[in-house]
Amino acid sequence: MKLNETHLIQLAAVVDAGSVSKGAEALGLAQPAVSRSLAQLEARVGKPLFIRGQRPLQATQLGIQLATHGRRILIESRRATEAVQSLLRGTRGLVRVCGVPFFMDAMISRMIAEFQNKHSDVMVEQSYGNLAEVSLGLRAAQLDLGIVPLGLSGEPKGLRFQPILAARNVVCCRPGHPLIRTKRLDLGELALYPWVAPLPGSPLLADLFAIRSSLGSIDLDIRYSGGSLLSLMNYLAETDALAVLPFSVAFAERKQSRITVLPVDIPQPQRNLGILRLEEGDQNPAAAAFADFVVEAFDAMKQLIQRHENAVVWRR
């Protein structure tokens, strides 16, 4: 025997409300329609669902049992409806985001946590990659968003780039570094100390070469390369090595007091950090919501970053 689930839901509403009219009202239905459904269900099971002549309505044992099942169906139906609405609103779902390692570790990972504090039903899969890897992942539908720097060459074909922060690099070192105490610091003194090289493929690697070019024919002594942001900070903390980092990363780590900005101007890249996504196609609502959250977070943070930068006495 197969029962109509809609009939069971309506039975549950009537039993809970104590009358057909109130049950129909709770479901947003007309009373005659609910009465017909109950009559059809009663005919289907061949037994009465309510004790005759009782007011208010009193369900039979069969009616109580069937109402229990109807109530469960109604609860699951409402959960399914809420799940669909949450997916459409972007408050539920999966976000696959990939970006440049140092920036993801210093800033975006924190924003993911803040976003999930508000939207706990969103799952985030974070990975690391530069422009080439992110572009491939987006085109292959393996990623929803990329957070990467983009220069004057423009966005790759078929992809859309939304800038969130202008690139600004600085030289970082440990707080007790000898160069911090130097009153007349010039670029040439940067070559007197060892350097940490960024990960292969990182735009920071080209920026390091730009610093080397600005020193003329002097080669930089690169002692360590390829580490994560945490390993880089650990290395700087124990040595007199120098490293080129985005100013935003130094800003994000300012409260840890493990690295500091060496106040010397260096060649600056002509690029922006931003969000890369497919130009066309349906946007994952959860990914769109996260992208909006990141944009708003940086809009709110730009003044703080600028204020921190202005506090540094740059030496030319």
Automatic annotation (TrEMBL):
Please provide the record's keywords in A-Z order: DNA-binding, Transcription, Transcription regulation
Q: From the UniProt record, which GO molecular function terms apply?
A: DNA binding; DNA-binding transcription factor activity
Q: Which spans of this chain does the record mark as coiled coil?
A: none
UniProt cross-references to Pfam families, sorted A to Z:
HTH_1, LysR_substrate
Q: Name one GO cellular component term.
A: cytosol
Which InterPro entries does the UniProt entry name for this protein?
A: HTH-type_LysR_regulators (IPR050950), LysR_HTH_N (IPR000847), LysR_subst-bd (IPR005119), WH-like_DNA-bd_sf (IPR036388), WH_DNA-bd_sf (IPR036390)
Membrane-spanning residues: none
Q: Which residues form the HTH lysR-type domain?
A: 1-60
Task: Indicate yes or no for the key word tRNA processing.
Answer: no
Similarity comment: Belongs to the LysR transcriptional regulatory family.
Q: Under which name does UniProt file this protein?
A: LysR family transcriptional regulator
Organism whose genome encodes this protein = Tabrizicola piscis
